[in-house]
Amino acid sequence: MDVIIDKIHQLTPTIRAFELVTADNQQLPEFTAGSHIDVFLKNGLIRQYSLSNCCREHHRYVIGVLYDANTRGGSACLHEQYTEGDLLSISAPRNLFDIHPQTETAILFAGGIGITPILAMAYHLKKNNTPFELHYFVRSREQIAFYGNLNAHFAEQTYFHISDEAETIPDMNKILAAPHPTKHLYVCGPNGFMDFIFDAAHQAHWENAQLHQEHFVAEKIDTSDDQAFILEVKGYEKPIEVAAHQSVANALIAHGFDIPLSCEQGICGTCMLKVVDGIPEHRDLFMTDAEHAANTHFTPCCSRAKSDRLVIEI
């Protein structure tokens, strides 16, 4: 669907918030805290951005976009080629980072741009009178995004941890003390930051079922030992050789198959395909460990095959 960029806010030197509304001021599809939308950019890319506003707001969506010097083209396009009043094509919201229904107390951790889904969670938890703390990690005060929202609505629950201010260094043992099955932890930010939080939680004896995270970028995978393998598509007679340097998705596209691609990192699940036979080498962050073990689906944008032959259904 098409929306209009109603307002653009410069939150930090590198982060902008985009407020999206319908052209006729009608209500937008409902969403839940932790949801994201696909954004279809004018340069042909599709990127996912978390919704940061309260899910009880139906007249707008708010996304935060970090201008990344190492961008693959998505954030630069939004920052440089879009202005207030422009049309933007988006998908309906979907949620891969939902608040667990048994959450009676929550600890929210955000690193940098990871505040976007965490902010929406804070709105939801406060509206539902669910006790929570929000710990926001940034390198400097000027990098605090949505500071006005946090200060106005969650001043009592929010703790800022700023790298260049020693007095704000967190006591992780204290924060993560007394884990409980109804106490859940939610974290979003750079991969190294999330690893740090999860490592601390495991050391404090939190169970995996209580830990939830959302990735923005997949870790770089070593592909130097990748081998070619044969791919068979159910109902398609010709076997497809996937070269060592080639993704399954690109091999399928080269043979005329229409494979929807979005993140191309195994994060969003847009390209998910069914496995009929063979053993995939899962490299995605979308599916759970149990889903990987079942070997019934895989993501052709990044995953490969452990077996010499992989049979799939499209």
TrEMBL record:
Native species: Acinetobacter puyangensis
This protein's name: Vanillate O-demethylase ferredoxin subunit
Gene Ontology MF term list: 2 iron, 2 sulfur cluster binding; metal ion binding; methyltransferase activity; oxidoreductase activity
Cited PROSITE patterns: 2FE2S_FER_1, 2FE2S_FER_2, FAD_FR
Keyword Metal-binding on entry: yes
Single Gene Ontology BP annotation: methylation
Limits of the 2Fe-2S ferredoxin-type domain: 227-314
Pfam annotation, one family: Fer2
Keywords: 2Fe-2S, Flavoprotein, Iron, Iron-sulfur, Metal-binding, Methyltransferase, Oxidoreductase, Transferase
FAD-binding FR-type domain residues: 1-100
